[in-house]
Structures are given as C-alpha cells and as structure tokens.
Design a protein that fits this description.
Order of helices and strands: HHHEHEHEHHEHHEHEHHEHHHHHHHHH
Number of domains: 4
Radius of gyration: 33 Å
CATH superfamily of the largest domain: P-loop containing nucleotide triphosphate hydrolases
Shape: elongated
CATH architecture of the largest domain: 3-Layer(aba) Sandwich
CATH class of the largest domain: Alpha Beta
Largest sheet: 5 strands, parallel
Helix content: 40-55%
Distance between the termini: 104 Å
CATH topology of the largest domain: Rossmann fold
Structural class: alpha/beta
Strand order of the largest sheet: 2-3-4-1-5
Length: 455
C-alpha cells in the first residue's frame, strides 16, 4: 500500500455486495448515532474535530460502537489522507513504509491519518516505532482498541495521544440505526420494500448488546429470510431465527472478563442472590470456563464467608467437583447452587483480614526465634540447652487450655483474629472469650501459688 494511491471517496455508496453494516456506515457527524458524551456540541471530541486539532488519539470501546467510522469521518472532515491497518493482519514493516511515504507527503503540505485497528495487538517494540512520527507530527495516529489502554498501550505512546472512551450503544440508538437501514434506498434495504414489526426490531436491538454491526447484519439476514418466504414483514420469529444466539460482549482474556467476575464477587459479598445468579449466567452463557468460575467461587467462600459459615467451603469444593464430573450445562447448576448459598450465608472477612495482618507483621518485623518451650527436643543435647523446657501439654490441663505463651516475646499479647457476631463466628467469639478467661484465671492462680511459696 502506498500513501500516494488514490483514497476512496467516503461519500460514495459502497458496493452492493458489501455487508449492510458497511454500506450504512455514517459519513458525517450528523449521521453518526451515539457517543453524545463526546460528540454533542461543545463536547471534547467534536471540538477537536471542528477545530482541526491534529493531536493523535486512541478510541477505546467495545466492538460495533463506531471507532473505525469516527476515524474515517475525521479524515474526511479534515481532508487528510486516510490509511487503515489492522494490527491482526499487518506488520510493522508495512506501516513503517507508510510512515516514510507520509514524511514525503508532508513536504507538499499533505496530511496523513494512520488508523490502526486493534492497536493493542502490537507489542511494545512495534508500538515504539510510532513514537518519532507521532512526536514530529508526520502522521496523526488514531488507534482503536477494545482493551484498556492503560494496560495495553505503552506509556510513551499513551502520553502523546488523547484517549476517548466510547460506550456500547443503547437499545434506542441501535433501533434508530435499524429503522434508518430499512428505509434507506441508496445504501440500505429500502428497495426491498420490507417492513419490520416493532417487536422484531426491538429483539434485534436488544440481542446486539450495543453492537451496531451485529444488529445491522442480523437485520440483513432477517430481510433475506422474509424475502425468501415471500413475506413483506420481518416478524419477531424471523428476527429470532436470524440471530440464532445472543451476542454477548465477552473476551476471556480481556477487561470484560474481569469486570464480570468482579460483578459476581461483589454481588455475593453484598448478599444479593438474584444479582449473583445473573452475573453467573452472563459469564457461563458467554462461554467462560466453568472451572475458572468454580475456583473463584471457592475463593469467595474463604475470603467473604470464612468461619461465619465454614460449611460454605465444602459446598463450593463439591460444586467444583460436580462441574468437573458433569461438565456443562449440567454442572452449571452446581455453580448456581454454590453462588446462591454464598450470597445468603452470613459474611465475615475476619480471617482474611487477620491473615493479611499476620503477613504484614512477618514482612515488617524481624524473624523471631521459636520460644524454647515450643521446640521439640529429640536429643539429649537439645534437652540440656532448654529445648522443650516449660512446655505444658494442653490435654493434661483442666479445660484443655494451658497458661502458656505461644508467640515470640516481642509479639506476646498481640491479637489479629477478631471474629464477628455473624453465623458460626459468633460461637467462635464466645469460645475465644472463654479461653481468655480460663487463662486469666490460671494466671491468677499461678500468682497466688507463687505468693504462698515466697511466704
């Protein structure tokens, strides 16, 4: 590809063989639907476009929300040469050649917009190659990504670009695009003279999950199905048949993966059984590995339920075994059972917090030696130097509790585990209080005995 190849006129109608979503791609800001937080009058991206601000930018958002379309509109509005690459299909060698051509073109006053789709797929070294050209203004880089730029774009490049976050389209916005496509005789389906029931369009809009491309492609399939049956209406039944399966925005390695598991975990923590079931269903229907969810559910039992309902851990481990044994979809119900139980179980993070504080203590204090009375003395030498001396065997003591310190001297008296009044942990708190009183009584008795011996 050369920079000096003729650039297609964005105002021309695309080939009739192109998918409907491509043919209906908006050509101006006035045709563009959605992203009003960026494109409404006075909003940042619209201002940048209208002022012909040449700063490079990154568009971050889910599929089908207009990232590529916006880049093309910017090129058309600013009368810049538009070069499009996909990070999946193109290497840095081809892009470097384009940037060399852009330098030549710049000498004649020509401006170049280099659009990189899925820019997050370029590695660090490849992204570094853009820096001098972006820095000097040789090219105006517009990158599109579905992944969080903070994690996927190198900081040096990120600092030279403005990041704009695009949102999934609302159901009404997708509906607007579908209605436009149905009546457009130039680029859409208007010449087919096919209408669509309101509930059919609503179904297509709802099932698209905010992805305009998927919605328009599903509309085109619906229209062809209706035409093949000599029908003049797209019914809800035809729309459902065209969809086959709902499009759920999900990437097992991407940010949405972590967003959904976070929603599930926090719904469980907040004792919301219905929300917990919903987020679980979203993950499973989108194709998440049930064993990944099972591992996270076990973690929830330990982190958020703890000793308030210690049986929760066994239930979750059983659910994991059921998933492994049955597979999906049968094993999914075991996960649903575990998730609802965790949501409704009493909550405590006392053990989680206590263990974290212990680890912090270990990290920030010297490694104290084990007290001599807690050490084993399997040899005579060890006994002679005090190993095991003063150890009290709890089973020989009244109440099975000895008045014996088990922490190093510098840490004696420290407490990290503070049970709550939730569930079983309330009983543990009572038991801890009982043990404390037993020890206090034994210490008092020991002091009285010591006083008698001194008399």
């Amino acid at each position: 590809m050369s920079l000096f190849d003729p650039t297609p006129d964005l105002g021309q109608t695309g080939p009739v063989t192109a998918p409907l979503a491509e043919r209906m791609r908006p050509r101006t800001l006035d045709e563009f639907v959605g992203q009003q937080h960026l494109l409404a009058p006075g909003k940042p991206l619209r201002v940048q476009i209208e002022r012909d601000d040449t700063a490079s930018m990154i568009f971050w958002g889910p599929p089908g929300v207009g990232k590529t379309t916006l880049a093309k509109i910017i090129a058309e509005t600013t009368r810049a040469t538009f070069i499009q690459f996909s990070a999946v299909l193109s290497g840095i060698k081809e892009i470097k050649q384009v940037m060399v051509d852009a330098e030549k073109a710049a000498r004649f006053g020509s401006r170049t917009i280099l659009f990189i789709d899925e820019i997050h797929r370029f590695n660090k070294a490849q992204q570094d190659a853009f820096l001098p050209y972006v820095e000097h203004g040789t090219i105006r880089l517009i990158g599109a990504t579905t992944e969080n730029p903070s994690f996927e774009i190198i900081s040096a490049l990120l600092s030279r670009c403005r990041v704009y976050t695009l949102h999934a389209l609302s159901e009404d916005e997708v509906l607007t695009l579908l209605q436009r496509a149905l009546t457009d005789t130039e680029r859409g389906l208007g010449n087919m003279r096919i209408a669509a029931d309101e509930d059919a369009l609503r179904t297509l809009a709802s099932y698209s999950s905010g992805d305009a491309r998927n919605a328009l492609n599903a509309l085109e399939i619906s229209a062809k199905l209706a035409e093949a049956r000599h029908a003049r209406h797209i019914t809800k039944e035809i729309a459902v048949e065209a969809l086959q399966q709902r499009v759920l925005l999900y990437d097992k390695q991407g940010e949405e993966h972590y967003n959904l598991i976070s929603a599930l975990h926090k719904s469980v923590r907040n004792s919301d059984a219905d929300a917990s079931l919903y987020w679980l269903g979203r993950m499973l229907q989108a194709g998440e590995d049930p064993m990944y969810i099972a591992r996270r559910v076990v973690r929830m039992a330990v982190e958020d339920i703890g000793l308030a309902a210690p049986e929760a851990l066994n239930l979750c481990l059983s659910a994991r075994d059921a998933v492994d044994f049955l597979g999906s979809p049968e094993g999914d119900l075991a996960l649903a059972q575990a998730v609802v139980y965790l949501a409704l179980a009493p909550k405590s993070n006392a053990l989680y917090t206590a263990y974290g504080e212990v680890l912090s203590e270990i990290e920030n204090t010297r490694a104290e030696p084990v007290p001599l009375h807690l050490r084993n003395a399997p040899t005579g030498l060890m006994k002679s130097i005090g190993y095991g001396k003063g150890y009290q065997y709890a089973h020989d003591e009244a109440d099975r509790v000895a008045d014996m310190e088990c922490l190093p001297e510098s840490l004696q008296g420290r407490t990290w585990y503070h049970p709550t009044d939730e569930g079983r942990e309330k009983l543990l708190a009572q038991r801890m209080d009982e043990i404390r009183k037993i020890r206090e009584n034994k210490r008092g008795e020991g002091k009285r005995e010591e006083g008698k011996r001194r008399q």
